[in-house]
Design a protein that fits this description.
Elements lengths: L8 H16 L7 E6 L7 H16 L4 E6 L7 H10 L4 E5 L22 H8 L2 H12 L2 E7 L4 E5 L14 E4 L3 H9 L3 E4 L5 H7 L4 E4 L1 H6 L2 H4 L2 E8 L3 E6 H6 L2 H35 L3 E4 L2 H18 L4 H9 L2
Parallel strand pairs: 1-2, 1-3, 6-7, 9-11
Antiparallel strand pairs: 3-10, 4-10, 5-8, 5-9
The structure holds beta-D-galactopyranuronic acid.
The site of beta-D-galactopyranuronic acid has 11 residues, from loops.
Length: 332
């Protein structure tokens, strides 16, 4: 078979020009441009840790990965970002395990109220074999959890009154993260739960669409919720870990060497985050107090008793997760 080439002089000249230009310049090595999601503002413990992750990954891979982190939730709210990371449209993120439940049912165990006796117990569990079980469950949904961040204990706050007993929650419209378990939790206390994106809470508190929400001290402060909802009542009903997660699609493309670099950077970021968290949450508590927040302790056993039926309902719905729940309880 003969192939006839028709040579157009103009095309020949253009091709020659392109070859000439390419020959004269050094082509950059192929770089993976990674985009990461973070809901918190710059300077927040998680944000500082993510900045350090980005730096370490970019430097230690000699630019084979060029990572960039987008703070402040500018790339969307958490449920959207989870989907985008699962599909590989985003490459990495810091996710709270709360809104992960609808996608990775195993993580719902972590959203059971008063599960961990304290933050140290949570670290002990998540840094060990049980944490690996959660990472395996996340990986089946295309998220590679490389390390666990702290997010303290979450407590309720509102614009109306101090909460001492569960009865004080009666009728309060309280924002929760996107997870039915939290709706059950607030309803069990007599409040009205409203699932809502984090970024919408400030305005809703301001306009009275919400009376309150629940969060840890650093988020209560950095979101500005403390300016509006002055009553912070230390229910400490949730101690939720957060992950530094990589999109499985991005992870699988890496060489063994680069996987090791990324894993180490994630572990280093978690070490830094936990240190900054410990300092930052104390400081946030002092800051909000100085700015006029009214903090009170609550009758915790009464809250625990009200929420206890959530466990029975959960085990009934997910009998397969009962061993995991029991292992977490026994490990503390
Ligand atoms: C913060 C947490 C965020 C987000 C937020 C919320 O404490 O770090 O990931 O879950 O709470 O309430 O939505």
């Amino acid at each position: 078979m003969s192939i006839r080439l028709s040579l157009n002089p103009v095309h020949c000249l253009q091709a020659a020009a392109v070859v000439g230009v390419l020959a004269g310049m050094t082509l950059p090595a192929h770089a993976d441009n990674w985009r990461g999601w973070n809901v918190h503002p710059q300077g927040y413990p998680n944000s500082v840790a993510l900045d350090s992750f980005v730096k370490e990954v970019t430097e230690n891979t000699d630019g084979r990965i060029k990572a960039k982190i987008f703070h402040n939730g500018v790339l969307g709210d958490q449920p959207d970002a989870i989907e985008q990371t699962r599909s590989g449209a985003l490459n990495f993120a810091n996710f709270n395990m709360g809104p992960m439940g609808p996608i990775v049912p195993e993580t719902d165990v972590l959203s059971l109220p008063f599960l961990f006796k304290d933050i140290d117990a949570m670290h002990k569990v998540m840094d060990g074999e049980i944490g690996q079980r959660f990472a395996d469950a996340l990986e089946k949904k295309n998220l590679v959890a490389l390390s666990w961040f702290d997010s303290g204990a979450r407590s309720v706050y509102n614009t109306k009154r101090p909460i001492n007993e569960p009865e004080d929650m009666q009728g309060l419209k309280v924002r929760v993260m996107n997870n039915d378990l939290y709706v059950e939790m607030i309803d069990a206390l007599g409040g009205n739960a409203t699932p809502m994106a984090y970024g919408e809470v400030y305005q809703s508190l301001k306009t009275g669409v919400l009376d309150g929400a629940e969060n840890n001290f650093p988020s209560y402060e950095s979101s500005g919720h403390d300016e509006i909802a002055k009553y912070y009542s230390e229910t400490e009903h949730l101690i939720l870990p957060e992950c530094l997660c990589i999109a499985k699609r991005s992870w699988d493309k890496l060489s063994d060497q680069d996987q090791e670099i990324v894993r180490q950077a994630a572990v280093d970021a978690a070490t830094l985050q936990r240190k900054l968290w410990a300092e930052g949450s104390k400081k946030s508590r002092e800051d909000v107090l100085a700015a006029g927040a009214k903090i009170n302790e609550v009758d915790k056993p009464a809250f625990q008793a009200k929420m206890e039926p959530i466990y029975a309902a959960f085990v009934k719905k997910h009998p397969d997760l009962e061993p995991l729940l029991n292992d977490i309880r026994n490990a503390q």
